[in-house]
Design brief:
Elements lengths: L1 H23 L10 H11 L2 H6 L8 E2 L10 E5 L29 H6 L3 H17 L4 E3 L22 H16 L4 E7 L12 E3 L2 H8 L1 H8 L5 E4 L3 E2 L2 E2 L4 H11 L5 E3 L8 H6 L28 H8 L5 H17 L14 H14 L1 E5 L14 E4 L24 H9 L4 E4 L19 H13 L3 E7 L22 H11 L3 E6 L14 E4 L7 H10 L35 E3 L8 H6 L17 E3 L3 E2 L3 E2 L4 E10 L5 E11 L10 E10 L4 E9 L5 E3 L4 E3 L3 E8 L5 E9 L1
Parallel strand pairs: 2-3, 3-4, 4-6, 5-7, 5-16, 6-9, 11-12, 11-13, 13-14, 14-15, 19-27
Antiparallel strand pairs: 1-2, 7-8, 10-15, 17-20, 18-20, 20-23, 21-22, 21-26, 24-25, 26-27
The structure holds beta-D-glucopyranose.
């Protein structure tokens, strides 16, 4: 009897100890296991409730992990120009931390204007390091929606009007963010090309325009950049919201492009459980709860992918398989980032980040016009420089919506100019005052616009030269999320002011800080115009360096400037094409977006896509190809030289366009297929060799849903801008 008891106690002890050992044994959550094994293992250990809890937000910017298994929460943050300040758990407003002031990098329009993929790599790495230091799992950026209309309030956050340019820039950005163990979240997928009615507008577009213009940058970010997450957009496409859109998310993104990351909703972009479950959404963020996007009273547990989903799973309305797919993707993202054994530690507001921000700013500034060598302005040349305009002193990192930043520092244009030229040579006059800032920034003045204008005119009269620093300002309706601009015109009476200034001093240069094209009624009267974007922390230093000639400008426009709004494609077909009839919007210009429209319709833009001057000049040598005839799967080896024929060192971004001479479908007159930026000393010449895969010259054939290259003659155009073509060479495709 006693013996039996001893035996059973020993068996129980043995069982308990093996159970204990099993529990202690490293599971496949072990970082040394392949990620897919770790996912499989984690899934097998999770309860249904734990899985569902991972599919929706738990706070403004975070979602749950599985604390019981040591799987951390997912922390997202905007993006895409710097790491947004910490906010309260359930509010948009800042939590008042004192250690979260970041470096502001230039807006993505400026990055695109650099036409330099190395800049995108440096940008991604620096912002990735900042995100990592701040312990973020996901950086909500970059944005790659195509610039369709100059009125779009968020154009400044995107990379311009050309699918090739934005594709080449997004890939290194994504890769270098992610090398820091932080997931990039490419946004807003897709067709979020305006802010007007962004939550509901239903985009109607041909398959061809979708694939040729609006999807390539996303595709490149996924297939080449290997983005770990993507954000669905607010708008609808063919009657379904893009955060749960079967065609976009299931078919194109996950099936065709083999995306293995997480589809994250835009904040408040989810509208129903059935579609969220079935149509490819993985993580629901920002649905109306107290203090969130729209007022409402739903707690996080009532999100579409929370309790309603759990109940549906329990009653077998929804399949476990789809849930496991969503959770696998979220786990994969966590294992790639916060639970990666090789995650670096990051850096925050380091001198290297300032340097990176400044260099990108300097490379992105575009000199639009420069008569009689008005710029550069060497230090010491003039005794009195009048700086006029509100943007010379305004913070341009604050505002714009979700990309608004709390920064460690920001050098304003005026500060940069004073530092460069000396306070004794600068006189500042505000000239105009903008409307009340919705972002708490007040530039108070006791004077109205007339008095400010009179004072500015006085300052201009007595100065050797005048630098007008104006533009838009990231306030609502002036380059900001949630609303489009109302007109192409400069706001706050700036045109009137410029005209008044010109009457007293013709030595006037315009420096525009904006992320969008503006009309320029005074364009023929000013000698110099410089497009300075929103340049971030180092704005003033970068502007002053270009002004003084220490840096030779080399940026090129990533989008066309129309002379008037009606000249651009989206605005040529009435309301239905922009902003839509309130419900639907038809992209009637189809594939003819930006320069594709201006070129093909023979409308002269104010400034063309790819345009940008330098303080030196470049000569393009004859372009040649390695042979005259090619097969569709071959590469054209294009060569030509560029020579710096001026007196100073400078960089030129040469652009290669192709033109399909004869086609069964409409093709744009030219399409960008390559670019190469080269730095040349005075008199230096370099040979440029570029491989052009002919398969990339295809158009998307809607009928057979395939990319097609038709045989025949193609002309390769080598240019300094889309309108300034310097060399041509034709080849045959067999
Ligand atoms: C924006 C996103 C942003 C998100 C979180 C949304 O309103 O559209 O781009 O990442 O808010 O701030």
């Amino acid at each position: 009897m006693k013996k039996n008891r001893i035996i059973s106690i020993s068996i129980i002890c043995l069982l308990l100890s093996t159970m204990y050992i099993k529990a202690q044994k490293p599971t496949n959550l072990d970082v040394n296991q392949p990620i897919e094994k770790r996912i499989e293992n984690a899934l097998s250990l999770m309860t249904l409730e734990e899985k569902v809890a991972m599919c929706h937000a738990q706070s403004k910017f975070s979602s749950r992990g599985v604390p019981r298994l040591g799987i951390p929460e997912v922390w997202t943050d905007d993006g895409p120009h710097g790491i947004r300040e910490e906010v309260f758990w359930d509010k948009w407003s800042g939590a008042g931390w004192t250690n979260d002031s970041c470096t502001a990098f230039p807006a993505l329009t400026c990055l695109a204007a650099s036409f330099n993929t190395q800049m995108a790599l440096n940008y991604g790495n620096a912002i990735g390091e900042e995100a990592r230091y701040r312990n973020k799992t996901v950086l909500l950026g970059p944005g790659v929606n195509i610039y369709r209309t100059p009125l779009n309030g968020r154009n400044f956050e995107y990379m311009g009007e050309d699918p090739y340019l934005s594709s080449r820039m997004v890939v290194p950005y994504v890769q270098s963010v992610q090398q820091n163990g932080v997931a990039a979240c490419v946004k807003h997928f897709a067709l979020n090309n305006q802010e007007d009615k962004r939550m509901s507008i239903n985009v109607k577009i041909s398959d061809r325009a979708l694939h040729e213009i609006y999807l390539p940058a996303f595709k490149a970010a996924v297939e080449e950049g290997k983005a770990w997450s993507i954000m669905g957009s607010y708008n609808q496409f063919r009657g379904e919201h893009c955060c749960h859109n079967d065609l976009l998310l299931n078919k194109i993104l996950k099936n065709d492009w083999k995306f293995d990351g997480v589809v994250i909703s835009d904040w408040g972009g989810v509208h129903n459980t059935d579609q969220s479950v079935a149509n490819g959404l993985d993580l629901e963020m920002g649905t109306s709860t107290n203090g969130l996007t729209t007022s409402g009273t739903l707690p996080y547990s009532e999100y579409y992918l929370a309790n309603p989903y759990l109940i549906g799973l329990k009653t077998e309305k929804y399949s476990q398989q789809i849930l496991n797919d969503k959770v696998s993707r979220i786990l994969r993202l966590i294992f790639r980032t916060t639970m990666s054994a090789n995650r670096p530690y990051g850096k925050f507001v380091s001198p290297e980040h300032s340097e990176t921000a400044r260099k990108i700013a300097e490379e992105g500034i575009v000199l639009l016009k420069n008569e009689k060598h008005f710029f550069p302005i060497p230090v010491g040349k003039y005794k009195k420089i009048a700086v006029i305009g509100e943007n010379a002193i305004r913070s341009l990192v604050i505002g714009g919506g979700s990309s608004s930043l709390k920064v460690a520092y920001e050098v304003s244009p005026l500060q940069g100019i004073i530092k460069k030229y000396g306070e004794e040579h600068i006189v500042y006059s505000q000239g105009y005052i903008s409307t009340k800032s919705e972002y708490g920034q007040e530039l108070v003045s006791d004077f109205n616009n007339d008095s400010l204008m009179n004072a500015a005119v006085e300052a201009a009269k007595n100065a050797d030269i005048v630098l007008f620093i104006g533009g838009l300002n990231k306030n609502h309706f002036q380059d900001a999320e949630g609303g489009d601009r109302k007109t192409l015109e400069l706001p706050f009476g700036q045109n009137k002011l410029i005209t008044a200034l010109l009457k007293v001093n013709k030595n006037l240069a315009i420096i525009l800080c904006s992320g969008n094209a503006v009309s320029m009624p005074w364009v023929n009267e000013v000698p110099t115009i410089m497009q300075s974007w929103y340049l971030g922390s180092e704005a003033g230093n970068a502007i002053a360096n270009v002004l003084s000639g220490e840096v030779n400008p080399s940026g090129k426009l990533p989008f066309s400037f129309p002379k008037k709004l009606e000249d651009s494609g989206a605005h040529s077909f009435g309301q239905i094409s922009y902003p839509g009839d309130g419900i639907d919007e038809e992209y009637k210009e189809d594939i003819l977006v930006g320069y594709r429209w201006f070129d093909t319709k023979k409308i002269a833009p104010l400034f063309a896509f790819g345009h940008g001057l330098s303080y030196t000049s470049f000569e393009y040598g004859k372009a040649t190809t390695d042979k005259p005839t090619y097969k569709k799967d071959e590469l054209v080896k294009l060569t030509f030289t560029i020579k710096n024929t001026g007196k100073v060192t400078g960089a030129e971004a040469a652009q290669i366009y192709i033109s399909d001479e004869k086609s069964t479908v409409i093709r744009p007159l030219k399409e960008l297929k390559a670019f190469s930026k080269v730095l040349l000393e005075s008199s230096e010449s370099k040979l440029i060799e570029i491989n052009l895969p002919i398969k990339d010259w295809a158009f998307f054939n809607d009928k057979i849903q395939k990319w097609v290259v038709e045989p025949g003659k193609f002309t390769i155009l080598v240019g300094s801008s889309s309108l300034d073509i310097r060399q041509k060479v034709s080849i045959e495709v067999d």
